[in-house]
Structures are given as C-alpha cells and as structure tokens.
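User: Hey, my collaborator sent me this sequence without any context and asked if I could get a structure. I don't really work with proteins. Can you help?
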Amino acid sequence: MATRSNKKAAKAVPLGIVQGSEEPEGSSDLLMPTLGELLKLNIPERQCLLNPWLREHESCLLYAATGVGKSLFALSAALAVAGIGSFLRWKPDPKPDGRDWRVLYVDGEQHIGDIQDRARMLMDAVPEISRAKAQSDLQFLARQQQDPAVGFPEITDASQGGGQERILQKVLDGNFNLLILDNFSTLGVVADENDAASFNSIQSFLLRLKTENVATILVHHTGKSGETYRGSTKLAATFEIMLHLKRYGGDVKQRGRIDDEAIRYGQAHFELEWHKLRGLRAVGKVIAKLTSREHQGKQVAHWDFERSLDWLHGVKEALEAGLLKSRAEMAAYCGLQRSAAPRIIDKGVKYRVWTDANIHSWLAKGQERRRAWETTAPTVASSPGSRWASGRR
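Assistant: No problem. I've predicted the 3D structure and written it out in structure-token form, which is a compact way to encode the shape of the chain:
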C-alpha cells in the first residue's frame, strides 16, 4: 500500500527514534524505545475533529438500529468537520498548520440523489458552517453512483489491489483527515459475524488508517437485542470510541416541528450513549431530534437537543472532595465564567443534586484543603468539567 509521504514528514519525531538519531525513513526495523527515549520524544498534541470526543488518528464505532438516524448523525458530523461548523455543540479544533480538515464519506447503500438531498438539508442544521469549505473539503464515494462495470471496494478485502488498498489510496491521494464508512453491512463481507477471526481484516485496516494519521467513523447496525453492535465482541478492540444511538422513547420538549424533508429522507430521534471512550474527556448523554425551525421566512432543518445532567454530578464529586474553594472555581470547573455560578447552584438544587447547605460546607472544606496546599485552582481550559455545563441549544 502507498503511504502519505507528506504526513510522514510532518511527524516531529517518529516513535522510537530520539532526535539526532540516524534511523532511515521507511526502515523495516520495529521501533522499541526505552522509557527514557520515549519520554524525550516530541509527540505533537492530537487535535479534535469534534471536540471533545473525536481526536486525530482515532477510530469510532457508531451503531444503531435501522431508522434511528445513524446516517443523519454521521453526515452531520462530516459537514461540521469539513465546514468548521457545530454539530450538537461539538466543533473541530483549528489545525495547527492553518489548513482545513478534509473528510471522505464512503456510502454503500444510498442513491447519490438521496445523499445530495440530505447534504443540502443538513447544512442548514449545522450552525456556523462554512458552506464553501464544506463543499470543497467533503467528498463522497457512493456505491450507487459508480459504473456497474467498476467493482466497488469492499472494506474487508485485504488482497493486493483489493478494496482496502483502493480506499486507502483515495484517502492518501486526497489528504483526508477523516474517513466515514457508512455502513459496515453494505461495505464489507464477513464469513461469520459471530466468529472473532472474521474481523481480523477490518481491524488491520482500521489500524493501518491510524498509522497514516487518519481518523475513522465506522457506521454499523445493532444486533437483535438492539443494545449492542452486530457481530463478534472482537470488533470493539481497536476502537477508542463506541457510540450507541438508542431510539428515544421518553418525552422531551421540542421547540421545532418535525421537518417534512426529514421525514422524506429519514428521521432521527435518539439518545446517545458512550459505551467506550478512552481518555478523560468530558462527555455525557445527549438526546437529539431532527426537527425544523423558521429561518428567513422558511422552514429549515434543525438539530434540537438537550444534554443529560451528568455534569452536575461531576461538579458534586469535585465539591465533596474539597477540590473547589469558591463559587468562581465552580464556574471555572464547568468551563464557564464566574457569573454562571448562581445558575449552576440553582440547577443542582432544582434537581436535588445538592442543597445550599451542602455548597457552603463543601466550599469550606475546599478552602481548608487549599490553605494546606493539597489542591490547586482549576482553569477554564484544563478543568475536567470543562464543557460539561453546556445546556440545551
């Protein structure tokens, strides 16, 4: 398979090679740094394609039952990354080199006309999107647009010149940062979904994409239970992120109405559950629904959503541990300004997470611990609770 030479050159120091060493480019030797060498490496910080949960070089398994809205979710995410927009209030970080994020969306099922209609509709549902960037930096490889004589690449075909190599070559040639594969059932073939060995090929492919600095979202279906993805548990091993879009059955106040176009091109109403997320990233459950709202005299698509109250319990844990000494620090822990502290306290009281007396006691404990130099003040940028207090759009 080809390699992305320009990205290889951009790495500050390849893993296992200490600055100043003479390890040749493309060496076949296995890298085995000592701990001392590892600690000296200049490893660039990974940026988020969708802050805070999807970083460069990571792979995500996105799964849901038929009709829940996984393709609408994936396409909205693609538009937000390529168009530097906001999807469910997740945004891409600026690239350090100032360039744009590029996304390749591989679709194995939909007619190209439906993809066109959905993309046109969903651009209205991504706030702050740059339509110009989205139109130039998001590309589609759709099975139903191809000449029947041209075999469509299968993501499980690891043979020389096979599907994996063909897709990888497209990714490298296009300098794409994110590859979305929608969906596993229509893009690959496995002999037995319950046989762990059947997933060796796709795992190797996803790992290869990581070595080429490419992030991946693999869209998949749930099994018969509707609670987990279809196939062997081995499939989960290589993913840093596993998202389950669970059909929402409760009541949630919606400010818009269901969009006629959303009905025509697929509905989406789900609760998002994080079944796997490596690293300390401040995320919680999200309930989202594709609706419409009036904009400039016409109805346009709109993602209406609300977040769970998990972040309040995170603040409570920090308070109980004596990590915070003031209301200002409570706000900073949530990534907010001092003026937001009363709203945080009132919300916690409203939902019976704490009482005013609790707050007084816990802050006093925080002051004692700070005087004893046992804790340090949180900052808006670095606190674990940053972005947890994001409310409903």
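In plain terms: The first helix runs from residue 5 to 10. You can pass these tokens on to your collaborator as they are.
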